[in-house]
Amino acid sequence: MSTSQIVWLVIGVLAALGVAGIAGLVVLWGTAGNPGRSAVRKEIPADSVDRYITRGASFAIVLTVNTPLSRREVWDRIVGVEYMSSLPLLSGPTWSGDAVIPGATVPVGAVRTMSGTLLSVTERVTHVEQESELTLTGTALSLPLVIHSFAERWTLTDGPRGTLIVTWAIAGSPRWVGWLPWRWAVPLMRQILGFVLRHALRLKPFRSVR
């Protein structure tokens, strides 16, 4: 095979990969509008979340931030503000129907969604302690057959000198390749999710969903 043939072969392969990549992105963009399209393989019960975060999930990260915001203000943001909607390419969390009314207790079983340009997810509340803890399990997502399970938990505890300690734990496992060492990605994801957490706890108030 001549040099020119090799060059054209490489160009053809790269072009094919580019087209396939664009097609994949188009598919993801088209499915992202339906966060309930595909059910997860397993929903994590509230009494198993600790074990799931510690060692059960393929990936897990725990983020902790100390904030001068009051407990009530932080809680109202977590359950009553679409804090991700003011970030590029993201929206939510959005509660289904009238499941959550700002200032009221969040009921177990309430459902909310979070959406992105390429992926959207649905979660259900499994445990709640008013102004202290909110635990959710993943129930569905927009892309079929890729996630085995995922869960999320917010915890609010008193910090030093009148501050509040906010802990955000996220864990999940993909299907088929859950055996890979996904927890190695924690340092990278800590930067990304840490930015989202700091945004949610910014001192500038958010506008309420309602």
What is the 3D form?
globular
Question: Main beta sheet: strand number and arrangement?
Answer: 8 strands, antiparallel
Radius of gyration: 20 Å
Number of strands: 8
Unreliable residue runs: 7-32
Number of helices: 4
Please report the distance between the alpha carbons of the first and last residues.
Answer: 67 Å
Tell me the fraction of residues in β-strands, as a range. Answer: 25-35%
Which class of secondary structure composition applies to the elements? alpha+beta
Helix/strand order, N-terminal first: HEHEHEEEEEEH
Helix content: 25-40%
Average pLDDT, rounded to a whole number, is 81
Summarize the structure.
It contains 4 helices and 8 strands. The protein is an alpha+beta fold and 210 residues long.
Keyphrases for this structure?
31% strand; 210 residues; alpha+beta
Give your account of this protein's structure:
Strand 6 (133-141) and strand 7 form a beta hairpin. The protein has four helices and eight strands. 30% of the residues lie in helices and 31% in strands. Strands 1, 2, 3, 4, 5, 6, 7 and 8 form an eight-stranded antiparallel β-sheet that branches. The longest helix is centred in the N-terminal third of the chain and has 29 residues, at 3-31. Residues 7-32 have low confidence and may be disordered. It has helices spanning 3-31, 49-56, 71-80, 186-200, and strands spanning 38-39, 59-67, 90-95, 111-116, 120-129, 133-141, 147-158, 164-174. The chain is an alpha+beta fold.
